[in-house]
From TrEMBL:
It comes from Aquimarina muelleri. Gene3D superfamilies: Aspartate Aminotransferase, domain 1, Type I PLP-dependent aspartate aminotransferase-like (Major domain). The keyword Transferase applies. InterPro entries: Aminotransferase_I/II_large, LL-DAP_aminotransferase, NHTrfase_class1_PyrdxlP-BS, PyrdxlP-dep_Trfase, PyrdxlP-dep_Trfase_major, PyrdxlP-dep_Trfase_small. Its cofactor is pyridoxal 5'-phosphate. One of its GO terms (molecular function) is pyridoxal phosphate binding. It comes from the Bacteria. The lineage of its organism: Bacteria, Pseudomonadati, Bacteroidota, Flavobacteriia, Flavobacteriales. Keywords: Aminotransferase, Transferase. Signal peptide: none annotated. Residues 33-381 form the Aminotransferase class I/classII large domain. Belongs to the class-I pyridoxal-phosphate-dependent aminotransferase family. The keyword Acyltransferase does not apply. This is Aminotransferase. It holds the Pfam family Aminotran_1_2.
Length: 398
């Protein structure tokens, strides 16, 4: 006898990386020396102060009890101070900040708090696949808006204004952008806030890449009146190499935070106190941390640029974040292209197709890989350079 699954599972597929990484692990288990250049999971350690904080807290009496759904006041204050110091933005730690177990859960919590079945959600194309998956899971409908290279991977507000927006409740934006690396700007954020106000849309900026190879981090709340219509997700995963710790936050006006808390308080029982203490230590780290991390990422990025050129790709050197977005030569099928590289050279790269139809013809490299491994990838491809020039899989033009 088979128990049938919920119909909502018919609306989504297993996350690409979940499925593909199984294949990569199988190749590694069989002895293949696979270099993973696809996943944005920081390979470096978090600050020593962070690890020390959790170690010390774990030994304190009472540290292992259930914690507040809202996080301890000290953590919310640290987040508020961080926003003030880094973004020049004021957030009330009492009611405008909600710590999360990673910002990914925030996407679900926000969607459950604001979307009814049949509501529409503006989702960027290309964009983070979870925006679409969550909308489908809860019975909302993703309405894709185009991001294209010749518009600097920013929304075309003229085209957006021509769309039927009567059922749109939420709009997802993500700057610095993943996967393209487009930095965004105060001017763009002002246009987004004006658009959201005009159409009564909740605007959510997903902002985990502010401090990676980016000299001028900005928040959606840098715009006057943004709290009327906006929320912002942020995370410690990328900035402080704490991806496995699952620490994020959502910020916004008190009424919006209260709505999200109604959902969150029914989903978990609070974050481990030691992790909260570690997060506080991270948020208070000196500026030298960011400088040192970016020196490493800069060196890696220059090597990735060399690797991308070897593959005949083109890229924008002004982009931000921990990925390099590469345009392949016209007509190249990115999925087949990266599979050929995986099977013949044991190098795993992300195809742009997984981020949406506007990602076709692009590939994405992660900077979360050691310099020595990037150099090894370059060497492998240089040894077989003629293969990639003469045998590139092409998109079926029929």
């Amino acid at each position: 006898m088979r128990i049938s699954t919920a119909k909502r599972l018919e609306t989504i597929e297993e996350y690409y990386f979940s499925k593909k990484l199984r294949e990569v692990r199988e190749r590694i288990a069989s002895g293949k020396p696979v270099l993973n250049m696809a996943i944005g999971s920081p390979d470096l350690d978090p600050p020593k102060e962070v690890v020390q904080a959790i170690q010390e807290e774990a030994l304190i009496e009472g540290a292992h009890k259930y914690q507040s759904y809202q996080g301890i006041p000290e953590l919310r204050k640290a987040i508020s101070d961080f926003y003030k110091a880094k973004y020049k933005v004021s957030l009330n730690p009492e009611n405008e900040i909600l710590p999360l177990m990673g910002s990914k859960e925030g996407i679900m919590h926000i969607s459950l708090a604001y979307l009814n079945e049949g509501d529409q959600v503006l989702v960027p194309n290309p964009g983070y696949p979870t925006y679409t998956a969550v909308a489908n899971l809860i019975g909302a409908k993703p309405l894709f808006y185009d991001l294209v290279e010749n518009n600097n991977w920013e929304p075309d507000f003229h085209s957006l204004s021509k769309m039927d927006l009567s059922k749109v409740k939420v709009m997802w934006v993500n700057y610095p952008n993943m996967p393209t690396g487009s930095s965004g700007s105060i001017n763009l954020f002002q246009k987004l806030i004006d658009f959201a106000k005009k159409h009564s849309i909740l605007l959510v900026n997903d902002n985990p890449y502010s401090f990676i190879l980016n000299e001028y981090p900005i928040s959606i709340f840098s715009i006057n009146g943004a709290k009327d219509v906006a929320l912002e997700l942020n995370s410690l995963s990328k900035t402080f190499n704490m991806a496995g710790w699952r620490v994020g936050m959502v910020s916004g006006s008190s009424d919006k935070i209260e709505a999200i808390l109604k959902v969150k308080s029914n989903m978990d029982s609070g974050m481990f106190l030691g992790i909260q203490k570690g997060a506080i230590a991270a948020l208070r780290i000196s500026d030298s941390w960011y400088d040192n991390m970016n020196l490493i990422y800069k060196e890696r990025r220059e090597l990735i640029w060399k690797l991308a050129s070897l593959l005949g790709g083109s890229y924008d050197k002004t982009t931000k974040g921990m990925f390099v977005w590469v345009k392949l030569r016209d007509g190249v099928n990115a999925v087949e292209f990266i599979d050929n590289i995986l099977y013949q050279n044991d190098i795993f790269i992300a195809p742009g197709d997984i981020f949406g139809s506007n990602g076709k013809g692009y590939i994405r490299f992660s900077l979360c890989i050691a310099k020595e491994n990037i150099e090894e990838a370059i060497q492998r491809l240089q040894n077989k350079k003629l293969h990639f020039i003469t045998d590139i899989p092409m998109i079926n033009q029929n």
